[in-house]
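ARCHIVE CARD
Drawer: 12
Card no.: 0347
Subject: one protein chain, sequence and derived structure
Cross-reference: see card 0346
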Amino acid sequence: RVEECTIGPLTGPLVLRAALVVLGFFVVLFVGAMVLPGPKREGFPQPNGDRKTYRLTGLASFLATNAAAGIWLATGHSLSELLKHFWSYFVVANVVALLITAWLLVVGRRRRAASNATTEDDAWWKDVWFGPELNPTLFGVDLKMFMYQPSLIGLWLMNFAFVSAQLETYGAVSLQMWIYQAFVWAYLFTHYVREDFMLSTWDIIAERFGFMLVWGDLVYVPFLYSLCGWWVLDAGWTFDPDTWTAVYETPPVYALVALVAFHLLSHWVFRGSNWQKDRFKRDPSAPIWGKPPETLNGRLLISGFWGIGRKIN
């Protein structure tokens, strides 16, 4: 046993170190959103009828981060720090979410006042929670779309850190861990290859950008979606009581086959249903499963996955 992966204490120096790492991560991703290549896509009409044009750089950022992480590990470094100092990063992420919320609140309310767009429903607490603006932009980057990058790429880094942690703890990486990593990577890759799907979602079209979405992106997704990795970290491993060496028990083949099949089916339903809805929003006449789409009153899709169940995604 080389080194057990346990969450360390919360100290000032560790929080400061985590803050510097998170700041660097943000800056690199934001610069990437400004300079990396990506297709341009027109968004859906906003409440005032305007349509924004988005340059989708998420896939380039995701693949670049994959490459950087690979180089980091290949040169003898580790990602397990993200887990060992979990609380430090968690605290920093919450503070960053609050700071961004405060900035959005101040800047957004000033812009709204300057444009004389204030309404009776502009309660300050609603502006904190939901945000004062629908699509705030900084240096040409739509902040609501950008925030998916530190959110989902942060999730991938948190999850991939379990590979380093398992290698350091047990001296090898289990089959369960590799399968788990493949599932997470596929989930993120299929998001980024169809990043334009996000432009038709309620989040982008109708929800303002405030604490609810900011905290969800920076804290909820990367830190809570990755919690199952702590279970996968130790699954299948035991220690010989005499030699105190790690012993790995390979799962039954039928269990692994069933698990992979279940994931592929679930992934197909999840992405397929979302993409069907996106196609319908863009072209209500586009066929679904080879047939013209059925609707209720021309608006509610009841074909394909959406004819099987609501919220099936």
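Annotation on reverse: The chain has a mean pLDDT of 92. The first strand starts at residue 40 and ends at 42.
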